[in-house]
Amino acid sequence: MAGQIGVGMVGYAFMGAAHSQAWRTVHHAFDVPLTPRMAVLCGRDAAAASAAAEKLGWASVETDWKRLVESDEVGLVDICTPGDTHAEIALAALAAGKHVLCEKPLANTVAEAAAMAAAAEEAAARGVRSMVAFNYRRVPALAFARSLVADGRLGELRHVRAQYLQDWIVDPEFPLVWRLQKERAGSGALGDIGAHIVDLAQFLTGSRISGVSAVTETFVRERPLVASSSGPAASSGSARGEVTVDDAALFTARFSSGALGSFEATRFAAGRKNSMRIELNGSAGSLAFDFEAMNELHFHDHTLDPSVAGFRRILVTEPEHPYVGAWWPPGHGLGYEHTFTHEVRDFLVALGSGTDPAPSFADGLQVQRVLDAVERSAAADSVWTVV
Amino acid sequence: MAGQIGVGMVGYAFMGAAHSQAWRTVHHAFDVPLTPRMAVLCGRDAAAASAAAEKLGWASVETDWKRLVESDEVGLVDICTPGDTHAEIALAALAAGKHVLCEKPLANTVAEAAAMAAAAEEAAARGVRSMVAFNYRRVPALAFARSLVADGRLGELRHVRAQYLQDWIVDPEFPLVWRLQKERAGSGALGDIGAHIVDLAQFLTGSRISGVSAVTETFVRERPLVASSSGPAASSGSARGEVTVDDAALFTARFSSGALGSFEATRFAAGRKNSMRIELNGSAGSLAFDFEAMNELHFHDHTLDPSVAGFRRILVTEPEHPYVGAWWPPGHGLGYEHTFTHEVRDFLVALGSGTDPAPSFADGLQVQRVLDAVERSAAADSVWTVV
Amino acid sequence: MAGQIGVGMVGYAFMGAAHSQAWRTVHHAFDVPLTPRMAVLCGRDAAAASAAAEKLGWASVETDWKRLVESDEVGLVDICTPGDTHAEIALAALAAGKHVLCEKPLANTVAEAAAMAAAAEEAAARGVRSMVAFNYRRVPALAFARSLVADGRLGELRHVRAQYLQDWIVDPEFPLVWRLQKERAGSGALGDIGAHIVDLAQFLTGSRISGVSAVTETFVRERPLVASSSGPAASSGSARGEVTVDDAALFTARFSSGALGSFEATRFAAGRKNSMRIELNGSAGSLAFDFEAMNELHFHDHTLDPSVAGFRRILVTEPEHPYVGAWWPPGHGLGYEHTFTHEVRDFLVALGSGTDPAPSFADGLQVQRVLDAVERSAAADSVWTVV
Amino acid sequence: MAGQIGVGMVGYAFMGAAHSQAWRTVHHAFDVPLTPRMAVLCGRDAAAASAAAEKLGWASVETDWKRLVESDEVGLVDICTPGDTHAEIALAALAAGKHVLCEKPLANTVAEAAAMAAAAEEAAARGVRSMVAFNYRRVPALAFARSLVADGRLGELRHVRAQYLQDWIVDPEFPLVWRLQKERAGSGALGDIGAHIVDLAQFLTGSRISGVSAVTETFVRERPLVASSSGPAASSGSARGEVTVDDAALFTARFSSGALGSFEATRFAAGRKNSMRIELNGSAGSLAFDFEAMNELHFHDHTLDPSVAGFRRILVTEPEHPYVGAWWPPGHGLGYEHTFTHEVRDFLVALGSGTDPAPSFADGLQVQRVLDAVERSAAADSVWTVV
């Protein structure tokens, strides 16, 4: 019989809703060593937080994250707030002996991320675990892609081609939400979605980005203000404010393995809704993936006779595929939210076995270093910048 | 504040797991007038049912469905058993004043289905609601397709081309599970998956199939026996039994609107895992869909200038699309299980508004009549057979 | 050094232009035992035929096909006229000892086709060769598909799913051209495009259709007249005439091998321009093809580990693929007209080696028998009709 | 009645064969003001050149290009040799008053290209025309894409994403052909295929690349020697030589319009045969193209209601599309070679109208400047380099 673990979640917007679905579901789909108890939800506005807690299934509410962190009901703190608050909450939670799941990017600066990674390493020595929520690693197709690469099915890697394309701010009248403000979000497309493809590229290849050359751009430099930057995305009259983050970030990269990388993150790719694409080319094969068709992985086996070789569409819905055995028969695909269910499943399994889950805060820090190198290169005429 | 309704579910295999996920989730994603309480799970084997109840989140267990139907804890009976038991359970539940959600096909014979439809109509007069679980109507892309057709975007319909292709019994050593036995399943591919495309074609077109010409085939006529026909799909030695259902069913059809239909259901399409495909061609446009890419709908607007016309891939993940507003941002797709969450959501909404949900048992009966016409045509040299 | 052969072509519309491109090109792309000399073009209107001859590259013109057949300049007669004239011309040409390439369908009736096949067999004994122009056999992807089937890569065939979808007469104001008149065209979609998928299905499977059950329909029963039925497709005022052929034909079929077939030919599939699609499912693998992407063949190898299996997109542009070695490097695709160049190449090679090319007139007759069975079944309540 | 123009072609390998097909075909497909007469083919090996001339349809042969340039039979010189010879031949031809079609890249250095552009400008004043053979501009889908951009259908351009991916040298045992030698080819993937996407991006956007930041790499630095560097690609024993060109080139770019660009050219993308892909994102729409499916253009109209918006697959085979009216009905696609037929058609039309065809040598020079900036940036730590 599995024991329980009390979970306290800070923040309840988009990420909070997705994490809640995961915490509600994980033990019904998977055999996990600990059953999550959705104990405390934290939000600054008591009424709104209470409504969210009822809707999302949390047992109680706090308006001060410090009380959540200290609560006896809470053994695991799940941080779903904007990046400017991650470090403070995570450090306090780890210090209090609470396991921490932290949304990405790990922090808004390398310095914060480094402090968090150091604290996580120190906490791990006490059996306190931490994980950064790069949920796309838990797309079955991408977890399976990693195993194909690790098994050598691609041979020596030559190229990584990663793009994260969205279009939700193409309209210049879209308002100045917190994700467009540097002090809250740290950066724009770069940290929000670029962080995902940096992590993913390093995860899939098993190799680190060693240097980059970058350009960034803010196409629309002023946008309508919103009444409250944490509120809904409705503009308030004609007042405008400055966009202080990048709209798009492009960079070339080299991996420690010798592979070349091409990266692009943008919110201005009209018609691309959540197109996180990645293609790997190696001496023995290639892989291609697009999150807009998340149940498919395209694999070219270059060792076959050329007359019958080609990119094959693998429906990653077989019981042999990662995570899939817990769900439905072949051809019955999963959705976005499953990535979070798989994420907390892996965290709970790690807690049960007393091991450190991945990606670690150190992994999150490394991603942060890459993002930092991108910004430094972009600020220095794109000159090659070592990570 | 929403009231509650106690749910009792009979059966806990594949469909039971999918329905459980829906009952656990629906009120967290949608605003529903009644919150489901997962009260009773019924299975013949007490130990197995108890284990399933704990895993799936049901509060108690019964081994006799009659007690579940009579339980004061249960206001809604969810029937997830093989087709040979649907009629008896549903009739008892309706008689007991319980709302009924019944898996498809509604029954194994037209006679049973007719009795169920009559009982449902009689019950509706008493405010007792029923619904047959053609879950694919609740794929957002297909619900949206229906609205495009209803809005006249396709003009006068000419062609319906529907295929449901699977491959799980291509191997002749796959054992003789209950779905391959006529006395349990009623029919083979025809009733299991053919029923879905019949319902879907009629739903999308808003028109009924008036006649058919059919062929059916059983490619592999003997298969290894399983120890228990309701048990897992493992064969037991060399003993073999007869496959008494169709492996594949093909038929042409005419709709009352004048459109022509081509239908195919098979479990022998190697490489097609759950490829429920449908294409509609009208005088003003066309639609194409494949469940293996369930978040996409392909729409051709034939009224555009030919130079810029073509099938467009609509990612049916916008807040304007049916059901999608409850979930994630554009491009963050849904999975198979969401169809069930949407299904019970619609049932709960109908209960709240005191209206009859669709598809009704009468709709289920009509599908059954089509399946029956298919079998009669196939048995009579494919001669045209009026539904 | 290759010798020459004089070619005489009857008809110079769409097919005539395509065949001319083939005769002009074949010896520049392939090593052929005979170089074609484009000797005589025949058309009833002398001025128009002369203009066509100059444009298309023919050395001289005749207005009476009988003189073309008898010309000493002509060793091979290429028949590109509507189906009602095929038999008379072909019989005369074979009698005159001229090799014959005849467009499809071979004739408008089984009786005519039978006479042609008999004449072709008799002529073959005299070394006079004949071929029916089912050009799609010469799409490299389909020729390669045939070799995969013949090599057993699909195992035992279960399903053939063939559709030929066009949309050029969706508009009810499209005029009554000769292809919509039974006395000229023999039938509508059935003979024009249905003939192609019948031939192709039998070619790919190496098995014959043994019986069918069919429905046909004429959606638009009257259309504007054109000034001349052989003229351009411009309507002439408000006068209308009856459409005397099918707009669409659907049928189920059985192959002598035991496979089931589903066939559909229509000119009312809005948005499908020339979508000749075919899918084969066997016990060991599947193939899928669509002419709208004619350089691709999709192959599923069902013998692979399920985790890495899936339909692979083979670009059929490798030097190992049929016909491709004569053209461009991998990835540099071919177009529609190449199918004709390949066709005449194969005819010339057969002439050089003194063998009978395929598909023979006997093959064309067999296709005609299938089309005839389709029409008889459609006229008899879709009853199963043996070919 | 059209006059004639004598053509002299220098070189008869891959490009020579493709150009020959164009010269043989153009006047049969299009109405052109001048009919080409394939007068002289030039190759250094008399026997091989004679065999090629007979195969490809040229009337006579020269072994010295200078005699070809001076021949009274030749009014137009078509240069299909490696890049190291372009300048000398083109300058001589222009001086001799012959029109010049020159393969890309225009030259191996900016200095050579500048001399050629100057000579072309001077010659144009005398009515002597010149054109650089960026044939991909003549893919109907891309010519049509240009018109959509020019018509404002994409709004303000934000992103250009261009990749040219091949895989023919993935195998390290592939020999050291001339395309891998700097003295012959000038550069590797950069000049061979990168030049195409640079030209195409500028053509489609109507905007020039103003600066770049680049990396290049040679993955396999030694390869087997071939007996003759101009011979077939067969290795000669164990001797190896140095690869002196790039295997891959990646760069970011800015356009004068303000758009950002991401470019990649490589011969190491296993499974990508000739995948020249380009995507444009603008404020009003997006376009995507891949040469491996050259008859398709994907267009997203961002001004539509989001519920029905998406990338539509336009089959660029309608009579309204550029060049297509000369060929086949809708859905009957074209192939690689047609790009050359269209190219020479446009050149002949320009000659007939006494105008300068595009792309001009000045356009070719500008591409060369971009390639040069790429090489300079790659050699200088990827620093931003103005074109």
TrEMBL record, chains A, B, C, D:
<dbReference type="InterPro" id="IPR036291">
    <property type="entry name" value="NAD(P)-bd_dom_sf"/>
</dbReference>
<feature type="domain" description="GFO/IDH/MocA-like oxidoreductase">
    <location>
        <begin position="145"/>
        <end position="287"/>
    </location>
</feature>
<protein>
    <submittedName>
        <fullName>Gfo/Idh/MocA family oxidoreductase</fullName>
    </submittedName>
</protein>
<dbReference type="InterPro" id="IPR000683">
    <property type="entry name" value="Gfo/Idh/MocA-like_OxRdtase_N"/>
</dbReference>
<feature type="domain" description="Gfo/Idh/MocA-like oxidoreductase N-terminal">
    <location>
        <begin position="5"/>
        <end position="125"/>
    </location>
</feature>
<keyword id="KW-0560">Oxidoreductase</keyword>
<dbReference type="Pfam" id="PF01408">
    <property type="entry name" value="GFO_IDH_MocA"/>
</dbReference>
<dbReference type="InterPro" id="IPR055170">
    <property type="entry name" value="GFO_IDH_MocA-like_dom"/>
</dbReference>
<dbReference type="GO" id="GO:0000166">
    <property type="term" value="F:nucleotide binding"/>
</dbReference>
<dbReference type="GO" id="GO:0016491">
    <property type="term" value="F:oxidoreductase activity"/>
</dbReference>
<dbReference type="InterPro" id="IPR050463">
    <property type="entry name" value="Gfo/Idh/MocA_oxidrdct_glycsds"/>
</dbReference>
<dbReference type="Pfam" id="PF22725">
    <property type="entry name" value="GFO_IDH_MocA_C3"/>
</dbReference>
